[in-house]
Amino acid sequence: MLNLVLFGPPGAGKGTQSAKLIEKYQLVHISTGDLFRMHISNDTDLGKRVKQILADGMLVPDSITIDMLEEEVTKNPDAKGFIFDGFPRTVAQAEALDAYLEKNGQTINGVVQLEVNEDEIKSRIAERQKVSGRADDDADKLLKRIDEYFSKTVHVLPYYETQGKVSKVNGIGNIEEIFSNICTAIDAL
Ligand code: ADP
Fold it and tell me: Is the distance from the beta carbon of residue 53 to the nearest atom of ligand 1 less than 6 Å?
């Protein structure tokens, strides 16, 4: 199996690159953000619990996120591997994912870090908001998401760096070129 984490700040292009990667490597894409948004639009119990948290640009509590993630992995027993997009976002989530995979004789094979600076993120998301209509793409909510990223999510990187699993890829430039650089990193695993 090939289990990858696509890591980067909001607006780094994780969703765009995941879509291309699943096609090439035949992996199952799990985006916790997409899953939460699906629960919200279907008005499920989980959706009701997380709706305001997402709207505010805050992280959903680990226990809720981890349960949802594990359920999604369990639903795909025949997968050749997974791309985790937007997960893990805290060290506790990374530890839970490792423990879960280990129980099933699996591991994270590599973490691709998409590097994009804060100015670029802000201008990309301002553009995206014109079409996405995402409430959390509003300028003040985006600042909260960036804040959550720098206070909690960045700590996930050293967690994987000590395991020697992180490949850094420049996330600014041509989409195809970035994709090709990610593939080079994956093929070297
Ligand atoms: P982006 O990467 O553009 O911020 P996502 O779609 O990945 O967008 O996430 C949207 C929101 O969903 C986050 O701001 C957060 O509220 C929630 N979320 C997604 N993944 C997680 C996670 N792993 N842990 C906690 N909250 C999450």
Answer: yes
